[in-house]
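Page 37, continued from 36.
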């Protein structure tokens, strides 16, 4: 039908005129949606259907009439520009919906532009065309980072460097300073995220983690909530980032998604459908179609939770996004808020720089502090109500999600979140003043808030390379890459870890966390806040990794008996999962033994004796 339409059109109107009319129409619609926010998804759905529809028509028309259009003066870079925009549209739709199929389609179109060298011939004809190719490479790198196509990122970085050098020679009067910063950002990002950091996928893999259908039932759960939406925001001066994607939000983004598995998982990052492989050189047809609804995700898995990522937003913008997410949250949904930022408080602990491993803070209940002779944890029972009256006072702490120069205009206060506690919230606060958010507990407007709060201070977690490039927050690292965080804390680097040793530790930690999950689900004194979220695979994994993080930091010799180095959860978890319990200590002891680092921890006599007895029995 489309072929007949194009033929009938060509009988009356020149093909080139039809084509440029479609281009103008597509440009107009593209300009309207390009800067639309990534939230308020439902409101803008119709816009995206319309723009994808016109680009589908444009792409098919240029495929079917390629030869005539080339004869009429169509340039290869113009074809590449269309494909690049389609890739940009798909990535934008992924950012709005978190659907993996859009991310894969974006990669397909970007890769087609790269491999077919659409911009090559016109690269140095005009500085604007050179900038167009530089932007294409920068956007493609973002897609490859999120897809974990590290081989392609390496290739693109080298290509960007070479292209930038050639541009500086060809256009000596042009300042490419901003592009130098782009290169510096991606180089720093890659150094902070080398191969050792992603040996195991950050995404939830049913090959390595429990399938959602196999999660243990929570005895005390009166309702079952699912993670439906997440709002991720991180800001620290001079933090590792690429574009507006910081290292911490990048890790959390992936931690809240499914890893494609089975026949849907391709190490090359391209689905087995073959879509996008048919673009030929010198005017041959490109991808066969632009299909807005094509399903190349794993149908055996639930959809990814939707995520909004904000970098240096204004407070009003942050609250507007938060309000929209709460408004769109389903009746069985929970909204995760991840805030990673430095704080301001007259009473807060002093904190090392973010590059040295950002701050933590906490207290844990002291009900088991006297249960062991060798552990004298000075645990303080959390009393969130003591902070209620200070929530609006001049002494109240806030997180700076932007420059401090604007004062409170860039500060998020705990009380700013109170109106949104009418819906279920799961807070992950990574800051030196995370303790101030305990003021929310008991003051909620309808739903009790689940909180995982970082310590007020943290030890520097060294990087895996010799440049000592900061590797982001240690608390976030424990929640997203717990074994790597543990190994780095011990002073090892990626190059000096034997893979057999790593695999042994990985299996031990995975089985141990699953064991903790079973015990937690069967606990008869589990707070309802945790009981209703423990059935969600993403939230369950965060909770269990938090327990591991708290136990490690409580037992680690340099932070032993120092509550400012301990994370905290609100409400409290059962006493079985306090760092003083053998249930928790035993796992850390076994892990430390694998790496020959037991002397770096202070274990209870009971745990040490039980471990020796188990070794003799084996």
């Amino acid at each position: 039908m489309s072929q007949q339409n194009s033929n009938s059109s060509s009988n009356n109107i020149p093909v080139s005129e039809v084509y440029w009319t479609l281009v103008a129409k597509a440009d107009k619609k593209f300009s309207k949606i390009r800067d639309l926010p990534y939230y308020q998804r439902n409101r803008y759905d119709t816009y995206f259907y319309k723009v994808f529809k016109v680009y589908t028509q444009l792409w098919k028309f240029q495929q079917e009439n390629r030869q005539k259009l080339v004869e009429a003066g169509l340039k290869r870079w113009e074809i590449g520009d269309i494909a690049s925009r389609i890739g940009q549209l798909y990535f934008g739709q992924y950012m709005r919906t978190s659907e993996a199929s859009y991310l894969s389609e974006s990669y397909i179109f970007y890769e087609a532009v790269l491999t077919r060298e659409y911009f090559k011939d016109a690269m140095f004809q005009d500085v604007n065309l050179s900038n167009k190719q530089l932007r294409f490479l920068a956007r493609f790198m973002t897609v490859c980072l999120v897809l974990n196509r590290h081989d392609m990122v390496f290739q693109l970085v080298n290509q960007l460097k070479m292209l930038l050098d050639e541009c500086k020679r060809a256009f000596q009067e042009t300042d490419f300073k901003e592009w130098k910063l782009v290169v510096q950002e991606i180089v720093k990002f890659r150094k902070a995220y080398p191969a050792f950091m992603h040996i195991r996928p950050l995404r939830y893999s049913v090959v390595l983690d429990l399938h959602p259908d196999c999660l243990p039932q929570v005895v005390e759960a009166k309702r079952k909530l699912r993670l439906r939406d997440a709002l991720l925001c991180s800001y620290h001066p001079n933090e590792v980032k690429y574009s507006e994607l910081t290292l911490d939000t990048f890790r959390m983004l992936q931690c809240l998604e499914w890893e494609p598995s089975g026949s849907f998982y391709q190490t090359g990052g391209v689905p087995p459908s073959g879509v996008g492989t048919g673009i030929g050189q010198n005017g041959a047809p490109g991808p066969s179609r632009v299909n807005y609804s094509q399903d190349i995700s794993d149908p055996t898995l639930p959809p990814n939770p939707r995520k909004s990522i904000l970098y240096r937003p204004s407070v009003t913008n942050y609250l507007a996004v938060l309000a929209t997410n709460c408004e769109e949250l389903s009746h069985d949904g929970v909204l995760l808020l991840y805030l990673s930022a430095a704080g301001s408080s007259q009473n807060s602990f002093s904190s090392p720089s973010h590059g040295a491993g950002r701050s933590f803070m906490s207290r844990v209940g002291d009900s088991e502090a006297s249960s062991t002779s060798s552990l004298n944890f000075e645990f303080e029972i959390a009393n969130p109500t003591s902070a209620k009256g200070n929530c609006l006072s001049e002494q109240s702490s806030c997180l700076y999600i932007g420059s401090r120069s604007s004062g409170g205009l860039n500060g998020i206060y705990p009380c700013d979140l109170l109106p949104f506690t009418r819906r279920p919230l799961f807070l992950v606060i990574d800051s030196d003043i995370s303790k101030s958010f305990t003021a929310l507990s008991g003051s909620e407007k309808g739903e009790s808030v689940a909180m995982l709060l970082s310590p007020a201070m943290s030890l520097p977690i060294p990087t895996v390379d010799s440049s000592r490039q900061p590797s982001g927050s240690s608390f976030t690292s424990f929640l997203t890459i717990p074994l790597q965080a543990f190994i780095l804390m011990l002073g090892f680097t990626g190059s000096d870890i034997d893979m057999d040793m790593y695999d042994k530790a990985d299996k031990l930690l995975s089985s141990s966390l699953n064991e903790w999950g079973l015990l937690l689900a069967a606990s008869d004194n589990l707070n309802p806040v945790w009981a209703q979220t423990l059935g969600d695979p993403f939230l369950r994994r965060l909770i269990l990794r938090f327990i591991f993080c708290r136990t490690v930091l409580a037992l680690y010799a340099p932070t032993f008996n120092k509550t400012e180095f301990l994370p905290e959860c609100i409400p409290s978890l059962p006493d079985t999962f306090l760092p003083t319990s053998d249930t928790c200590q035993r796992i850390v002891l076994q892990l430390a033994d694998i790496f020959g680092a037991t002397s770096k921890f202070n274990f209870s006599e009971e745990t040490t004796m039980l471990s020796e007895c188990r070794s003799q029995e084996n």
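The chain has a mean pLDDT of 81. Flag for discussion at group meeting. The longest helix spans residues 41-64.
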